[in-house]
Amino acid sequence: MRPLTSLPNPISPITIAFTTTCLLILFIFFFHQNPFSFSYSYSHSPLLIASPAMARSFVLWLHGLGDSGPANEPIKNLFTSPQFKNTRWSFPSAPHSPVSCNYGSVMPSWFDIYEIPITSESPRDEKGLLKAVENVHAKIDRR
């Protein structure tokens, strides 16, 4: 087994999982405090459910680095419990931007990631993360 330091620096499944988890936690927290603060029409992110009057919950699914919202739509089929029967789903796509950990390659990314693996000493794109939160809030607020 090769040591971790000798591996190439491609898009890492760990980074994708980390990014998706962090953003999902941020939005779960946001909607837990204010669950009805979203609008029902989006110009660039499809919403998949019956009428808004029937919606009892809302899931905003943010994809990982290099992925797209529509590519993640099948994930809703894994949520089969009755609690998800009247759920409104949204799968927005991140804007394309250069990603430092992938040598500046332009790809869908909610914010910049400077290095993989991410450690406690890794540089942080706090400004970019806050901008991503603002952009997603804007998608939610659009009518």
From TrEMBL:
The chain crosses the membrane at residues 12-31. Keywords: Hydrolase, Membrane, Transmembrane, Transmembrane helix. The keyword Transmembrane applies. InterPro entries: AB_hydrolase_fold, LYPA1-2/EST-like, PLipase/COase/thioEstase. This is Phospholipase/carboxylesterase/thioesterase domain-containing protein. It holds the Pfam family Abhydrolase_2. Residues 54-141 form the Phospholipase/carboxylesterase/thioesterase domain. One of its GO terms (cellular component) is cytoplasm. Coiled coil: none annotated. The keyword Transmembrane applies.
